[in-house]
Specification:
The chain has 179 residues and is of the alpha+beta class. The chain contains five helices and four strands. The longest helix has 22 residues. The structure holds iron/sulfur cluster (SF4).
Amino acid sequence: MCPPVEEWVRQAMAFGFSHAAPAALAALRVRPEVRDMCAADRCRLYGRSWMCPPACGRLEDIQKQLHGCSAGLLVQTTGALEDDFDYETMEAAGKKQKELFRAFRRVLAPTRPGLLALSSGGCALCPACAYPDAPCRLPGEALPSMEAFGLVVSEVCRDSGLPYYYGPGTITYTGCYLW
Ligand code: SF4
């Protein structure tokens, strides 16, 4: 039997995440505006990755998938910046979050078939994504982001009672597991 989400919060904290909390399922509202931001292509991944729009799925289908979830867990990594230009710490915190997120997915997945794992940022596992010419090279490792699924991360955090921002001099990356 899968432990309750509160037990996964405890395990996520012991695993090394800075913060964790149960995700409020009512907060999982997909927003067309988020897709519009993806389509503006500031990150240069729109239409270039299996894990980003449009390849990661239509919002209508994603909303149905999210409605089918019965529990969720938010996890965060926060870095302490020396100043506003401390890109080294920003990058290190983002890398740490991705590594922890993948590793903790391997812990959760055996207890939750069909686990949905939504990370922060695009999938950068391959130097160049196989999209659209060939299937994803690492389907068991590739991760879409919360934004790719149309979620407003700050809204999901707020409605779940978890800060999205921990104040000046900090940077925080957020991901979620849903089942
Ligand atoms: S694992 Fe590679 S092929 Fe698959 S989505 Fe990520 S970058 Fe693309």
